[in-house]
Amino acid sequence: MKKLIYAFLSIGSMQTLAQTASAPTSGINIYGTVDQYISHLRSSSGASITALEDGAYTRSRIGFRGVETLGGGLYARFQVEGGLNADNGTQADAARGFDRQSWVGLGSPNGELRFGRQNTVVFGRGDYIDFTSRTLGSMINNFGAPARYDNDISYASPRIGGFLFEAHYALGETTTKASSQGVYQLGVDYLNGPYRVGYAGLRGRAPEASLYPTDVRYDNWYANYDYGNGKIYLAYVRTNNSAATPAGANAGSILGNTGALNPGTNPDVNRYYKIWQISADYRVSPALRVGALWGRIVDQSSLQRNASGGALAAYYDVSKRTVIYAVTERLKNSGDAGFRLAASAGLKSNFSRPDDVDGQTVKGVQFGILHRF
């Protein structure tokens, strides 16, 4: 296996591609973010919540990453990253030291192979989906998206003729077939000047002979156009990754947002949703960016758990590392739909009673500060 991997990665150094690409510089970096914001939520039920939250735009975190050049265009790379709740100093995931990423890889001008806990192709393309980078204010984010998986093997190509390809396979690691409960991912991105179009998809296999053997699917198509002072974004998602919880009819997802497998026991896997979204931003000045978004979630089943909503936001760059932001958003659940507002990190203080979300309109106003180091 080592010889096959090394031979595969070495091909790039013998191709014309190698003449225009080089291995990254060796070194190790410590990096991170701290993102804190005040959130006020109000439901048409009359309930409201005001809280200090973490991770509107990006989850607070600390990470370590490094590269070693191996010669001939080859290199080794690693990254380990753990999320933090900066509002109280605790780990984002008490069961994991590095819950966000933990992988090692080998690369060359021919692409890069990685092994370990990694972000999904859906998560990695957040910047291409809408002006929020699919965080606070995004309807697609309110629905939810699988973010990362354990035991993941991935390959990402270099960009050739405008195209970049990415594929993942996260092993289910069960005692049955190797593919049982495995998660497959594929990403294709095309960039040509100001235009970008692409696809990011995921399939979560159910165990053999399970009660509900349907695969969990998440298919995301996107396009954006850079008009100079900002971008216009279009995005579409079709998925069956939504589930009811005690907090609401659509308050959970079958795969979760941090890497659960498909158990094959949830009947909600047979209900599909479509999400349509349009957004745009505008650079008012070198420091100030504003944006607007609108989206709709359509339940394709007879239950008609639909929702619609949008957001307005402003981001002010105090410096290259520090951003102050303000967001106002609205989400209207029709029938007995139970979607809730979400951010880059899950809101620790969110509506927990179905009566406050199912069929209700939820509004939010948030103000915060993000610092990168």
Care to describe what's here?
The chain has 373 residues and is mainly beta. It has one domain: Porin, CATH 2.40.160. 5% of the residues lie in helices and 51% in strands. The chain has 3 helices and 20 strands. The chain has a 16-stranded antiparallel beta barrel. The relative contact order is 0.16. Mean pLDDT is 92; it is low at 11-20.
In terms of structural class, how would the helical and strand content be classed?
mainly beta
Query: How many domain modules?
Result: 1
Largest sheet: spatial strand order = 1-3-4-6-7-8-9-10-11-12-13-16-17-18-19-20
> What does the radius of gyration come to?
21 Å
H/E series, N to C?
Answer: HEEEEEEEHHEEEEEEEEEEEEE
**Counted beta strands:** 20
Number of helices: 3
Q: What percentage of amino acids are in beta strands?
A: over 45%
Uncertain spans, ≥5 residues at pLDDT below 50?
A: 11-20
Mean pLDDT: 92
CATH architecture: Beta Barrel
Report the end-to-end length measured between terminal Cα atoms: 38 Å
SSE diagram, text form:
Elements (H helix, E strand, L loop, with lengths): L1 H9 L16 E17 L4 E7 L6 E11 L2 E12 L4 E2 L9 E8 L2 E9 L1 H4 L14 H5 L4 E9 L6 E8 L12 E10 L2 E10 L11 E11 L4 E9 L3 E3 L2 E5 L20 E11 L4 E12 L7 E11 L4 E12 L27 E12 L1
Highlighted features:
single chain; 373 residues; mainly beta; Porin; 16-stranded antiparallel β-barrel; two-stranded antiparallel sheet; 3 helices; 5% helix; globular
